[in-house]
Amino acid sequence: MFENLSERLERSFKILKGEGKITEINVAETVKDIRKALLDADVSYKVAKEFCDKVKDKAMGQNVLTAVKPQQMMVKIVHDELAAFMGGGSQDINVKGNPGVVLVAGLNGSGKTTFSAKLALHVKSKKGMKVLLAACDTFRPAAIDQLKVLGESIDVPVYTEEGEKDPIRIAKNAVAKARAEGIPVVIVDTAGRLAVDQQLMDEISALHDALNPTETLFVVDAMTGQDAVETAKAFNDRLDFDGVVLTKMDGDTRGGAALSIKAVVGKPIKFVSSGEKLQTLDVFHPDRIADRILGMGDVVSLVEKAQEQFDEKQARELKKKLARDQFTLMDFYNQIQQVKKMGNIKDLAGMIPGVGKAIKDIDIDNDSFKSIEAIILSMTPAERENPDILNGSRRKRIADGSGTSLPEVNRLLKQFEGTRKMMKTVATGGLAQRMKGFRR
After folding, report:
1. Nearest to residue 421, comparing CAs of 325, 334, 321, 330?
2. Cα 390 to Cα 370: distance, rounded to the nearest angstrom
3. Which of 4, 57, 172, 242 is the most buried if burial means most Cβ atoms within 10 Å?
4. Across the strands, what pairs with 246?
5. Burial group, residue 418, by CB count within 10 angstroms (0-12, 13-18, 19+)
6. Residues 418 and 425 sit within 8 Å (Cβ to Cβ)
7. Residue 14: half-sphere exposure toward Cβ, Cα within 13 Å
8. Angle, nearest 10°, between helix axes 406-427 and 329-341?
9. pLDDT at 431
10. Distance between CA 213 and CA 184 in Å, rounded?
11. How many CB atoms within 10 Å of residue 187?
């Protein structure tokens, strides 16, 4: 979502390219361009001005080392200020209690119900705690059924009361049930409401007072830009919530909400959500977002995602197979499934420094694997285990069965062979030996 802002900031820094030192003139010119970039990204004028004033003050107060170019120094200053404006560091949610209660509030259509299920999966898988989802959206007809389906998909129970219209009663009974059954966390999904609707705002305020939740999260659609910030202010005045969740981060948004909300509302962004898959919920790390905005990638998040999906025991077994040159097409297929679980392929590639810009205009999605998967699944178990037996007639049968072509089957087998050789080299330490020889 920060692609346009990243490009604009990159152009701003070029003003200092080739400059021997930082001066009041070239800093003022650069900062002016940065302010324009932020305004174009839907950051409010007040926030953009405050940000740029801090950047300018820091830049003019720097004694640039001879080893550091002015352009590099400005990138470092802007990076640090971006991270500070977005909250400095990540902040966890408070689920301690008997039970801990998380109240989820927000506008109509902001994605509260889907987020509630995503959060339940996060608490269950990352914190190892049992969760009860409470269906307290009694206004939207399909909300309760939606939460039931989502809860079932992640094996999390959903508390409902057929015919009951009072969300306070439902929520209190859900908390009592959790306490009686020893479930340590209750996540309360509520009805969407507009900040201008006094009756609904009174209701969410009363629900908040009745539950006294350990954590109150305000869910907002990031695509609404500056409106998201104004809405957050209105809700905070009534609920004094603990943190913000930005949803639909994969949409066509300019990033103004992420950059402005902490500065304007004074409450941290705790999670960002993208897509409908329940695994696509990330803790908000301001420093890592600043890295991405400035084209530095986000290797830490990429490694964390990989660690979440790749089983350590399976990794050890795979290494042994690679060392013995026993890596099969089924192993190849299983690795693709693990990578797909990590999230959108283009987003993952964008976490690698320098890659995001290079693939900006390239259409990459998880469907890119479909033909590969179809080809492998069209093989017999014996063919997957031993690709050497794939003669011409077998390859033709596989192409017909997978709905692909013979050249596509041949290309996959060639890619697989190259991958197997490379992975064997890495697994046996051959790559390190070659690098040593090269350095000599």
Report:
1. 325
2. 21
3. 242
4. 220, 272
5. exposed
6. no
7. 6
8. 80
9. 40
10. 13
11. 30
CA distance 249 to 253: 7
Question: Which H helix or E strand runs over 105?
Answer: strand 100-106
From the centroid of its chain, how far is CA 166?
Answer: 34
Q: How many residues does the chain have?
A: 440
CB of 284 within 8 A of CB of 273? no
CA 120 – CA 354 distance, rounded (Å): 34
Cα→Cα distances 143→149, 205, 251, 275, Å: 10, 20, 23, 18
pTM, rounded to two decimals: 0.67
Per-residue confidence (pLDDT) for residue 314, from 0 to 100: 66
Within its chain, how far is the Cα of 143 from the centroid? 24
Query: How far, in Å, CA of 406 to CA of 146, rounded?
Result: 43
- Give the separation between CA 232 and CA 336, rounded to whole angstroms: 40
User: Cα dist. 393→284, 330, 398 in Å?
Assistant: 52, 21, 9
**Partners of residue 217 on adjacent β-strands:** 104, 243
Q: pLDDT at residue 359 above 50? A: no
Name the band, by pLDDT with cuts 50, 70 and 90, for residue 437: very low
Beta-bridged to residue 123, according to DSSP, are none
Report the candidate in 98, 149, 87 with the shortest Cα–Cα distance to residue 120: 149
Q: DSSP string covering 34-73, please?
A: HHHHHHHTT--HHHHHHHHHHHHHHHHT----TTS-HHHH
